[in-house]
Amino acid sequence: GENVEQHPSTLSVQEGDSAVIKCTYSDSASNYFPWYKQELGKRPQLIIDIRSNVGEKKDQRIAVTLNKTAKHFSLHITETQPEDSAVYFCAPKAGTDKLIFGTGTRLQVFP
Amino acid sequence: DTGVSQNPRHKITKRGQNVTFRCDPISEHNRLYWYRQTLGQGPEFLTYFQNEAQLEKSRLLSDRFSAERPKGSFSTLEIQRTEQGDSAMYLCASSLATENEKLFFGSGTQLSVL
């Protein structure tokens, strides 16, 4: 089955700095690469996703980049704000119709 | 509220008891997923339905767990003879068949087994 790892497991940044979270996966058949954000006590919410025919996608302050050859994709958050503090999960999808979630990265943005 | 709805929000039970949770997906979504999440971990896949058909069930799911979606709308997840290791947040998510990767999660049911 798919093996999904995220690094780092925790990340602390100063407000205004950038944050990068990396997700590595094992299944070369993976073709869909989303990132979910889960605030404390809340439900996971999709924030950005990318498909395997695209290398990068941006949505305001967040972006996702994909390296299919190396089997990893990354979440980039620029100009971080305190409300970006949350746990972020990658969840690549291969041939089956389910998402396999990583173990999460806890991001803390200090004012 | 047109989002995914789960009931109850919290459930405390004694070991050995049976519990049942309900999920109401977004109305036009024909896919429904159950995940389980423990503290500090990502959601772990349990099972999913397309309409009323249960298409996949995790190998991690013991025989004590059963899920149904009888009319292709709401779903129930039952755990029989609960164990302390079943304590977790049980999350339901739904999606459109045409965009089935985009999951919309409910707020979950927090189960505590004493």
Summarize it.
Chain A is mainly beta. Chain A contains no helices and ten strands.
Q: How are the secondary structure elements laid out?
A:
The complex is a heterodimer of chains A (111) and B (114).
Chain A: E1 4-7, E2 10-14, E3 19-25, E4 32-38, E5 45-51, E6 56-59, E7 62-67, E8 72-77, E9 86-90, E10 105-110
Parallel strand pairs in A: 2-10
Antiparallel strand pairs in A: 1-3, 3-8, 4-5, 4-9, 6-7, 7-8, 9-10
Chain B: E1 5-7, E2 10-13, E3 19-24, E4 31-37, E5 44-50, E6 53-57, E7 65-68, E8 75-79, E9 88-95, E10 104-105, E11 109-113
Parallel strand pairs in B: 2-11
Antiparallel strand pairs in B: 1-3, 3-8, 4-5, 4-9, 5-6, 7-8, 9-10, 9-11
Structure write-up:
The complex is a heterodimer of chains A (111) and B (114). By secondary structure, chain A is mostly beta strands. Chain A has strands at 4-7, 10-14, 19-25, 32-38, 45-51, 56-59, 62-67, 72-77, 86-90, 105-110. A five-stranded antiparallel β-sheet of chain A has the order 1-3-8-7-6, with no helix packed on it. In chain A, strands 2-10-9-4-5 form a five-stranded mixed β-sheet, with no helix packed on it. The model of chain A has no long low-confidence stretch (mean pLDDT 94). In chain B, strands 2, 4, 5, 6, 9, 10 and 11 form a seven-stranded mixed β-sheet that branches. Chain B has a four-stranded antiparallel β-sheet with strand order 1-3-8-7, with no helix packed on it. The mean pLDDT of chain B is 94. With 114 residues, chain B is mainly β. Chain B has strands at 5-7, 10-13, 19-24, 31-37, 44-50, 53-57, 65-68, 75-79, 88-95, 104-105, 109-113. The chains are: A mainly beta (111), B mainly beta (114). The A-B interface holds A 32, 34, 42-46, 49, 89, 91, 93, 96-104 and B 31, 33, 35, 40-45, 48, 55-56, 91, 100-108.
- Specify the number of helices of chain A: 0
- Tell the overall outline of chain B: globular
Approximate helicity band of chain B = under 10%
Q: Describe the main β-sheet of chain A briefly.
A: 5 strands, antiparallel
Q: Uncertain runs of chain B with pLDDT below 50, 5 residues or more?
A: none
N-to-C CA distance of chain B: 33 Å
* Tally of contiguous helical segments of chain B: 0
Order of helices and strands of chain A: EEEEEEEEEE
Q: How are helices and strands ordered from N to C of chain B?
A: EEEEEEEEEEE
This entry's quaternary arrangement is: heterodimer
Q: What is the topology, as strand order, of the major beta sheet of chain A?
A: 1-3-8-7-6
Biggest beta sheet summary of chain B:
7 strands, mixed
